[in-house]
Structure formats: structure tokens, C-alpha cells
Specification:
Helix content is 29%, strand content 31%. The protein has one helix and nine strands. The strands form two sheets. The protein has a six-stranded mixed beta sheet, with no helix packed on it. Strands 2-4-6 form a three-stranded parallel beta sheet, with no helix packed on it. The longest helix has 46 residues, at 19-64. The termini are far apart.
Length: 158
Amino acid sequence: MAVQKIEYANKVRGDLYTSANANEVKQVVNNNADELSALSRQLTETNQSVGSMSQSITNLREETKISVVQQSNMNATIAPNKLNVWGSVTFLSLAFTAGTAGVVNEYMLEFTVSGSEFTLTLPQGIRWVENPEWKHGHTYQVSILNNLAVYADWEAQS
């Protein structure tokens, strides 16, 4: 229903105001009140939808944050989409938990090599963009995505 207007001409002092005029005023006011009520309901529903979408966005932001997992076990099974951080280690032997289908599942590591005989054992099938040469005292970050591994290393701060 569209907003309605009163159709009769403006009244001036002395003009006759009939029951038809009064009924038209009543009908237009009531119809417009119904229209305003409908719009108010729509606005309330829209606000509820916006509130629900806002909450969904907040939840999505929380879900997509990458958490940091402090690790101490050098034989560990790690989950994707978490930064797994070790301190100084002489070796790491890692297994991966299955990722979630349909999303990016990145396995992330950070550790500092201790000693010259460091070894990193990963699940079979991992391919490196460049085979790492582990150096004592260096801190490494490793990212593995779709069984493809890349790394970066930093010398110890002096």
C-alpha cells in the first residue's frame, strides 16, 4: 500500500466540513498508519538481519585468526592453520593432522636450531622449493601448503 494524501481542497473559515471529509481524513490517516507499521516491521527485521550478519562477521574474524601454539615436544603431531613455535631444538619429527576440506590448510613452524646435526622429519611427500641447510643458532620459519614447503632463516641476534 502506498502513502495516501487527502484529496479535497484546503478548507478556509466558513467552508462546510462534511462527514465525507472527516471520513476521508480518517481513512487516509489509518492507511498511512498501517503503512508506517509495515515499514517499522521491515526496519526491525532489517536491523535484526544486520545484527545477525554483524555477529557472523565477528565470528568469522575470530575463526580466521591464526593462533600460536607453544610446543615443547620434538616428536609432535601438529594441526593446520596454527603457528607452532618451539624454542631451541636438536631435531624435530612431525606428523600432520588432517585439515578441513575446502579450506586452505597451512602447516606453520618456527624453531631455533641447536647443534650442527639438526634434522627435520616431515610426512612423506613434502617438497621444498629449496632444500634447507640448517645452521646452528639460526631461527627458522617454515610454511607447508599443499605439500609444498618454503622456509626463511634468521641469524641469532648479537
